[in-house]
Amino acid sequence: MIRLEPRSRESWIWQFGSPVVALSLTVLAGALLFYLLGKPVLETLAIFFIDPVNSVYGLSELLVKLTPLLLCSLGLYFCFKAQVWNIGAEGQFVIGALVGGAVALNVGELDNLIALPLVLVCGSAAGAFWAGIAAWLRTRFGASEILTTIMLNYIAVNFLLYAVHGPLKDPEGYSFPESALFSENTLLTPLHSDYRVSAAFLMAMVLVLVCWWLHQNAIMVFQLRVQAAAPRTARFSGIDSKKLVWRVLLISGAAAGLAGVSEVAGPIGQLTPYLATGYGYTAIIVVFLARLHPVGIFIASILLSLMFLGGENLQVMAGLPKSVSLVFQGMLLFFLLITDVMIRYSVTFGSGKQTQSARAASL
Amino acid sequence: MSGKNLSADSSLTMPDFPRLEVIDFSCSYHQHVANENISLKVFPGEVHGILGENGAGKSTLLKCIYGVERPDSGEMLIDARQVLIDNPATARRHGIAMVFQHFSLFDSLSVEENIALFLSVPLDKARKLAEETLSQLAFNLSLSARISVLSVAERQQVEIARCLMMKPSILLLDEPTALLAPPEVASLFLLLEQVALSGCSILFTSHKLDEVRSICNTASILRQGKVVGHCEPATMDNKLLTEMIFGDEPPPLRRSEKFEKGGVVFSIESVTTLADEQNPLPLRDVSLEVHAGEILGIAGVSGNGQEVLNALINGELCPVVGKIIFEGEDWSLETTASRQKKGVQLVPADRLGVGAVAEFSLAENFLLTQQHLFVGRFGAVDTKALSHAAQESIALFGVDHEDAKVTAGELSGGNLQKYLLARAVHANPRLLVCNNPTWGIDLQGTREVRQRIGELADRGVAVILVTLDIDELFELSDQIAVLNSGRLSSPEPAASMTLQSLGERMTGDGQSTLTAGPNNTGDQAARG
Question: B315 at the A interface (CB within 8 A)?
Fold first, then answer.
């Protein structure tokens, strides 16, 4: 008989081993999937994981995908550290893009040094505002942020659709549901003319370093951990949990909003109905895969960005739908949740001598 | 393996073989030997005490008998038949029941649901059984109350009551009275005597020697995992028993007889609080005043507002009426963090649930109540200073763990208590609030903790001591006030107070008869 027995302490080996095993299982399951679809397994895997990044241009495209994913994930890091389950980075991303875009369409005449920061700050603030609604509902009425943030995602997307079909539609756009292209003055220009990577990538990298520093030093991160591990102790030791909920949601919303606005004021350059491409949801997987650690977030974001690129590549090269990347994401989270069990439990075969803790648990 | 022939009537004939015999039990964890060649006999109807310091191996012995631990060697006889008990289910089939030192109740379920689950009977049957047993016990528990709203003592009552409902032939009790107030202890003992009369054998561990002497027919004394002697406690005095347990005479406490009262440090002026889910029993018109160098003892049966009083002093709760004043400043709306900064430290009763985070290191736990001391520029924690301070406090208070990296959950109760007290002392408080500071700690640890508290007061700290332990109350307090149904009696000098007058106030013969009883109020709030 196979049995799970609780460990007396969390296993450090599995803490880090679990993502690696989960990734391996995902690749194996992906291989099986390609095989069942009648595709040459190794070649298809290569198209998915290797081809997208075997050129400098490919690598630069990876950074383009990495930027918004990193920003969203770093924001969620704070929420999840405190066990505030913000599922709404997607909506905060969209609102950031929408409001930032609306501002961009109206300040095109201003100087670049004023217009661009204005656009970025407005987008970021809009994301924070959107998350702030969930914070208010949670702290004022005790509404679960899981539900409110998910619902706010749909509202955000519908606001975007309304805007591009209505007030923000390009008057000279032949009735396509798109805004006009933003003026040069409001755009994050590429760092190099051959590639699409913009200064937003540099901002994201700085934020990785800032988060890493906070992770290791900040009293705030300590407070988030106390709040997550023992809310009663947090209250006793004077940690204001409402303030924390506000703070983490505002940070997270601002980061997702910044991601959104740097997409529309960067590689995209206009508002379109297709802005909600799943960065906000993928970021959730990133943060769990990363073991709630900023450096882990950097690594996991690269992996998940690669899956985005790989999906697009498969569509072109192997005639498979782009949503293959979503299948891979789903499998990755699925396997991760399974292998994470190993952190707290050990597997035993047969009815050998039980551990002390297992016996205590069987009382 | 036969357990079917066990029944209470076997005792009527009083067989000349013991109900339970343990022969040469040895049990070790990793390298540490917890029990070594322990042998003892308990006859039907006998109450057998197991005495010893914390870490002497009392709990381990009970756990081995109950099948939670498996001894490395040794055997066990029940009614002169050899039995092999390798898990609690087998133990229960042999008529053994155990009340643990740490609770095994489901917080989110009600009292009666916990009882039904434990006994594996339908809810209505459990309710009937429970009503019977509780009225016998004189435990004032509401069956429909959720465990999470009960005080620690009330939870323990549930544990004891549901074990008795199994009608066991061998009952193991690990520190059952640690959290009970005197009247509750008395009624428990009365019931245990009845249970013993019906032929049940009882094994009982306790640190309280008076209790052991009053209830135990026989006792085994454990020191460092070995039996160092058997005795009949009733025939011995405390001094002799203490000598057997420790091997020598305990040093006297150093609390100085006279205390020099300084100015008023902290006062509460006619405060009333609102009832909410966390604090079902509000405080009503509570006033108190504590001076520098003074220890104000707050007595009371548990669940009479102690936790609310703590929350109020800690700033987790605001008064709806009245004022809190600290060194002349109105503190009614002051935050907890700001109170810590200005010199208030609390040592809560629930060490792991409130005072410390089990999976955090000792150093991290040190940070909890004095974040202002270790936070520098950009909100960065000075981890070096922190682990240094934690390490220093560990050494200073003789916490039995030299490394601040171990987690709080790995410390024994006594060591964790010393550590939490050391943490509070490090912050250099003007006001220290201690809650049941010696609950579940061995005699040596108790003595040390009480001595520390006395020393702090001698150095001019104002101390509020909220305790259920009457000995402790009289030993340490300069003034005593009694909390009953959310009301506080006016403090009186400890010297002028008698046990009787204290008991009357605690059990509600005094002013509290004017109002509803504590449990009624609490239960109504819990139900709503």
Answer: yes
